[in-house]
């Protein structure tokens, strides 16, 4: 598509470009429904690009109609649409502005986060107490010995040790978000399978490995599921929260992106602090070595202000931080606590059976209870 359009755009042959888009619409409409679902964002992008070419061609009515079509088809890239100079010809049009506002309600993730009503200052339903497995547990002790975690962590401060362990996981196993993790959900089995099959793990798997490495070294830690407001959006993320005794707070660690976050003074932040700074427009710094599989630099704008702003709407963590925490087994009970803003009107308790494992989720808006010190 790009190869055909690029020379027409350079020559300002917008009508010829629009003929191609008409053909692509027909080709998309002829696809079977499962394929359409797989490429569901394509229709919105076709309409959006048509809006741009009609705007460049000074056809106001058609450009606005095509942009409205893009919104109806699910277009959500507010940051791009709000700054795209191709649309400047129609930007003052009231119909365009209303449509752009609808995009903002769905795709401006910092704006969506800023519309939350915050958290409760206290109270809420009774919650089970968080538990952290001792480093002396046999499997954790073996993990520490097998992978020489003391050497990897180094002899520095607890913070430098935490960062070194995160680097180790990031280097050891690549991120692969397109496949399910192995059935046995613990660090040793994950690493063994990945090395044998030359495969990676999704973000939840990487966070599981890092969490058990932290526990094995005696750090209190949890992995945190970061979830969007849109419950139909399956693109969530999982990172780690590890408690630093020297800093007297939880710290944000993301092994998928080898990332930690700082304030303007260079002090490491917690997940809670990152979320608050996104809400309040305060500065955030990302470590310069943050990356995805060494193929793509992780930028602050895309990672924090878009991806994580979307996925820090609600947070979920296991009650018991331990070896093999999420491996399913007959009769096993796995409990989670989900932190949701008041505006989400949380249901206090949800339970379900999955392969004879009981999964129970307690919801709360009490941030102090969720982030209590270990």
Q: Quick check: average pLDDT?
A: 93
Sheet/helix structural class: alpha+beta
How far the N terminus sits from the C terminus, by CA atoms, comes to 54 Å
Sheet-strand content, in percent, reads: 15-25%
Tally of extended strands? 13
The main sheet orders its strands as: 4-3-2-9-11-13-12
General form: elongated
The arrangement of helices and strands along the chain is HHHHHHHHEHHHHHEEEEHEEEHEEEEEH
Supply the number of helical segments.
16
Question: Helical amount among residues, as a percent range?
Answer: 40-55%
Q: Describe the main β-sheet briefly.
A: 7 strands, mixed
Radius of gyration: 24 Å
Low-confidence stretches: none
Give your account of this protein's structure.
This protein has 374 residues and is α+β, with helices and mostly antiparallel strands. The chain is built from 16 helices and 13 strands. The strands form four sheets. A seven-stranded mixed beta sheet has the order 4-3-2-9-11-13-12. A two-stranded parallel sheet has the order 1-10. A hairpin with a 2-residue loop joins β12 (349-354) and β13. It is elongated and about 70 Å long. The protein starts with a helix and ends with a helix. The relative contact order is 0.10.
């Amino acid at each position: 598509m790009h190869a055909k359009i690029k020379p027409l755009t350079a020559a300002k042959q917008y009508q010829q470009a629009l003929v191609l888009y008409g053909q692509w619409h027909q080709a998309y409409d002829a696809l079977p429904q499962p394929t359409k679902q797989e490429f569901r964002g394509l229709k919105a992008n076709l309409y959006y690009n048509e809006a741009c070419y009609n705007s460049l061609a000074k056809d106001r009515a058609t450009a606005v109609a095509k942009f409205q079509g893009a919104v109806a088809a699910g277009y959500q890239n507010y940051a791009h649409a709000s700054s795209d100079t191709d649309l400047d010809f129609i930007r003052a049009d009231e119909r365009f502005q209303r449509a752009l506002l609808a995009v903002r309600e769905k795709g401006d993730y910092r704006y969506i986060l800023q519309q939350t009503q915050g958290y409760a200052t206290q109270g809420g339903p009774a919650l089970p107490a968080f538990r952290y497995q001792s480093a002396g547990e046999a499997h954790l002790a073996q993990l520490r010995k097998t992978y020489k975690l003391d050497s990897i962590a180094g002899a520095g401060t607890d913070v430098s040790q935490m960062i070194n362990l995160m680097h180790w996981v990031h280097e050891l196993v690549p991120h692969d978000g397109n496949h399910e993790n192995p059935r046995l959900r613990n660090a040793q089995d994950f690493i063994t399978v990945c090395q044998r099959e030359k495969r990676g793990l999704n973000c939840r798997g990487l966070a599981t490995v890092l969490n058990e490495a932290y526990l094995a070294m005696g750090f209190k830690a949890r992995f945190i599921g970061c979830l969007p407001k849109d419950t139909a959006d399956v693109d969530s993320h999982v990172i780690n929260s590890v408690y630093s005794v020297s800093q007297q707070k939880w710290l944000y660690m993301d092994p998928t992106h080898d990332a930690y976050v700082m304030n303007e003074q260079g002090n490491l932040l917690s997940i809670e602090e990152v979320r608050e700074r996104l809400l309040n427009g305060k500065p955030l710094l990302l470590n310069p070595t943050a990356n995805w599989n060494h193929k793509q630099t992780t930028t602050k704008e895309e990672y924090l202000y878009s991806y994580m702003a979307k996925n820090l709407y609600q947070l979920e963590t296991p009650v018991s931080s331990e070896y093999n925490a999420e491996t399913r087994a007959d009769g096993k009970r796995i409990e989670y606590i989900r932190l949701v803003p008041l505006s989400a009107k949380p249901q206090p308790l949800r339970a379900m059976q999955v392969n004879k494992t009981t999964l129970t989720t307690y919801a709360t808006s009490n941030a102090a209870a969720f982030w209590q010190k270990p």
